[in-house]
Amino acid sequence: MSSTAQLLDGKALANGLQTELMQQVQVLQVHMGRPPGLAVLMVGDNPASAAYVRNKERACANVGIASFGQHFPATATQAELEQAIATLNRDDRVDGILVQLPLPDHLDAVALLNQIEPSKDADGLHPVNLGRLVRGEPGLRSCTPAGVMRLLEAYKVNLKGQQAVVIGRSILVGKPQALMLLEADATVTIAHSRTPDLGAIARTADVLVVAVGRPALITAEMVKPGAIVVDVGMNRVTDATGKARLVGDVDFASVQPIAKMITPVPGGIGPMTVAMLLQNTVLSYRER
Ligand SMILES: Nc1nc2c(c(=O)[nH]1)N[C@@H](CN(C=O)c1ccc(C(=O)N[C@@H](CCC(=O)O)C(=O)O)cc1)CN2
Ligand SMILES: [Mg+2]
């Protein structure tokens, strides 16, 4: 018997969500008298970050969200960024603010995230919004894990009573992801780079979410047959022919034949992250 996993098409779902948000914005701005606004703060010239920022600004334009982005040189100081955030916090045209990560080493990212007004925290990374998630209260949710939940919901994955394993413990993905799965009544295990016998833990998962940043970390023998596999990894590698390509943390070729559902990279969680950012911005706008 041979079968192959169904693809969880994040790109198609994200496109549909963008259309819905565009329609909402058209109606809402009649009453609001202005479009929603998002400010993306980018520091330095990391080419991947620059591409993600362009991608976000293009998505904003498609939906009718005004961009108030600022690009700082790699030498920008903490005080300059704090000043920019303080000004955006007070700017009534701006509903969402985010700091593109990673930042150059001399900057304190946590201090900057803490300074963003929680009601404008489009990335859902402020302690107030993370605290609301811990308490199960409504609030702005971190975009990547919210995108994972929205994608699973669209494919009618019932998480109640399921064994979920999250591999990765970052504040951007792993920790909020575990809390969101818990909120959906899954039984959740968090594993990470220091977990002994990662394979044994991963194999217990009905739903496996991998967010480590290591190509081919998860191979077929680490996956329970019939599992739902969500690959949050995004790694740029050079293949045998010398061509650069983007791969996740899951060895797609070996895992797809045994999984029930799997996200592709690209076209899975990446586009959902951007869709959730737009959704958070529109949510902040509605509540202003
Ligand atoms: N402040 C933040 N910084 C970072 C975040 C974040 O959510 N907030 N996440 C990542 C980068 N990121 C958004 O910022 C991001 C990365 C990739 C994609 C995406 O759509 N990827 C495409 C492929 C694109 C390509 O070919 O390079 C896909 O997966 O299909 C969206 C968002 C780290 N920093
Ligand atoms: Mg991680």
UniProtKB/TrEMBL annotation:
Role of this protein: Catalyzes the oxidation of 5,10-methylenetetrahydrofolate to 5,10-methenyltetrahydrofolate and then the hydrolysis of 5,10-methenyltetrahydrofolate to 10-formyltetrahydrofolate.
Annotated Gene3D superfamilies: Leucine Dehydrogenase, chain A, domain 1, NAD(P)-binding Rossmann-like Domain
Domain Tetrahydrofolate dehydrogenase/cyclohydrolase NAD(P)-binding: 142-286
Occurrences of domain Tetrahydrofolate dehydrogenase/cyclohydrolase catalytic (ranges): 8-123
Organism listed in the record: Stenomitos frigidus AS-A4
Record-stated family: Belongs to the tetrahydrofolate dehydrogenase/cyclohydrolase family.
Pathway the protein contributes to: One-carbon metabolism; tetrahydrofolate interconversion
Binding residues for NADP(+): 168-170
EC number: 1.5.1.5, 3.5.4.9
Record text on subunit structure and interactions: Homodimer.
Catalytic activity: (6R)-5,10-methylene-5,6,7,8-tetrahydrofolate + NADP(+) = (6R)-5,10-methenyltetrahydrofolate + NADPH; (6R)-5,10-methenyltetrahydrofolate + H2O = (6R)-10-formyltetrahydrofolate + H(+)
Domain of life: Bacteria
Name the record gives this protein: Bifunctional protein FolD
InterPro entries for the chain: Aminoacid_DH-like_N_sf, NAD(P)-bd_dom_sf, THF_DH/CycHdrlase, THF_DH/CycHdrlase_cat_dom, THF_DH/CycHdrlase_CS, THF_DH/CycHdrlase_NAD-bd_dom
PROSITE patterns per record: THF_DHG_CYH_2 (PS00767)
Gene that encodes it: folD
Keyword set, alphabetical order: Amino-acid biosynthesis, Histidine biosynthesis, Hydrolase, Methionine biosynthesis, Multifunctional enzyme, NADP, One-carbon metabolism, Oxidoreductase, Purine biosynthesis
